[in-house]
């Protein structure tokens, strides 16, 4: 496994971890932890996609980061209210 594969595997693994934890109600789907894991995981996966110049996944993971950031901001605003 080369560096690019390792980085991509870590990123995708984090996204799947967030999904798994959510599916088994170990974290809230609209909670700060869920969005943070998704942002970090998608960011790492996006970086791996940049390294291998795979544009479709750069777009996918970049969009995942943006959507998760929006969700995180909404979650923070909700917890402050």
Low-confidence stretches: none
Radius of gyration (Å): 13 Å
What percent of residues adopt helix (DSSP H or I)? over 70%
SSE sequence, one letter per element: HHH
Number of H- or I-type helical stretches: 3
Mind describing the biggest β-sheet? none
Shape: globular
How far apart the termini lie comes to 47 Å
What is the structural class? mainly alpha
Overall tally of domains: 1
**Strand fraction band?**
under 5%
Mean pLDDT: 96
Count of DSSP E strands? Answer: 0
What features would you describe in this structure?
The chain is globular. Helix content is 83%, strand content 0%. The protein contains three helices and no strands. With 81 residues, it is an all-alpha fold.
Essential attributes:
mainly alpha, single chain, 3 helices, 0% strand, 81 residues, 83% helix
Secondary-structure topology with pairs:
Blueprint: H1 3-23, H2 32-51, H3 55-80
Helix pairs in contact: 1-2, 2-3
Summarize the structure.
This protein has 81 residues and is mostly helical. Helix content is 83%, strand content 0%. It has one domain.
């Amino acid at each position: 496994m080369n560096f690019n594969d390792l980085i991509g595997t870590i990123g995708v693994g984090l996204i799947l971890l967030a999904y798994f934890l959510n599916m088994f109600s170990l974290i809230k789907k609209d909670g700060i932890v869920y969005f943070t894991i998704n942002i970090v995981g998608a960011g790492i996966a996006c970086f791996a996609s940049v390294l291998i110049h795979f544009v479709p996944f750069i777009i996918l993971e970049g969009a995942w980061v943006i959507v998760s950031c929006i969700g995180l901001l909404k979650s923070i605003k909700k917890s402050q209210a």
